[in-house]
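Record pair follows.
FIRST:
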Amino acid sequence: MNKSNLILDGHKLAWHSERVKAWSRGERVAPITIDCALTPKCTYNCVYCYGQLQRPEDQPLSWERIALFLDDAAEIGVKAVSFVSDGESTCSPYLYDAILRGYNNGLDMALGTNGYLLKDDRLNDILPVLTYLRFNMSAGEPDRYAEIHGCKEECFDKVCNTIKKAVAIKKQQGLAVTIGLQMVLMPQFQDQIIPLTKLGKELGVDYFVIKHCSDDEQGSLGVDYSKYDDMVELLKEAENYSDETYLVKAKWSKIFSSGKRTYSRCYGAPLILQMSGSGLVAPCGMLFADKYKHFHIGSIKEQSFKEIWNSDRYWEVMGELISPGFDARTDCGTLCLQHKVNEYLWEIKNNDAEVLEGKGEKPQHVNFI
């Protein structure tokens, strides 16, 4: 793995300059990346989960709707689909077929999962076609893992064994897929930073990324962002475990942003869109809850994604996010998926910054912006 071109704290829009230019001209552009789930269900009850604040309808998507969505996404020009959103996609019986369908359509495919229901006997099918496989893991010790993720302690061993098998398959077959761990860091989890860093190295994954915890505008999860300031040395210690085959990276720019935005409009949604495991299409995951219905665009259970994307409703909602009536600093939660993209696009729209052109070697996962 070439660690130098793995961007874990930033964005990759410089390598999509033509679409950014089209967006800046006001054209109706297809998302570069869609972050979605195949079901709103989950096997865990993580204490930091933003999904618990939303409570979407608990009906998974049918294969017919999933397949049509993946066909539409490829047809309109989407480049990558990540099964990462508000549900645990391994709860869907169609996960493996969906990954293969998207890949065969020419889409880059990725999966973020807690790994508990991931079938070891299907790893050989999906690893060759995934761009990355990310295990969401916020503790390196079984008892703390069970406490933080709201599951049984034995889940820890199953997930670790699945990661080991995935790493072995990658090495045996010389696959390009990137296998990593992601920790959602709440201040009260800091005791798990080093154990999880060491575990990642032991398991043989390519990277371990430590990210902030997002909260809603009311602070419902109770994240005290000021306490991240006390973790600088601990996070640096974790990063020092990096070597030629293992990258440890803290998302410094978000962790130490105090949950604050420097922009007031959301420009990023047309380029990186989110979809709920319920089938709901909305600009971002923070707007899935019923109280944000005025931002809900449609559902792939009722319309094709292509029809939704072509609809006036889709572009009306995107327009509202950049209107004077919307303020991203107060009207939605903290540190969203589009945060780094929004910082960049804000400068283009409001401070006449130039559209950057990607130079040199393309970064890994280039279509997951």
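SECOND:
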Amino acid sequence: MAKTALSKASDVRGKSADELSASLLDLRKEQFNLRFQRATGQLEGTGRVRQVRREIARVKTILAEKKSSATKS
């Protein structure tokens, strides 16, 4: 599985809304797989769960900002 390397908010802000939506979908799939691995006892990198959760929050926040700015203008 390919890991998404969204590290900084500035990197995420440079993407379009469609790219952000696709990224959000990938992150949610990864989150599901990590939860499944944790439940079955196969998860090795427990820190990745936290990273993915924060990346999801970052993408959702920036998507909301873009929608808000689009409706204002």
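COMMENT: The mean pLDDT is 89.
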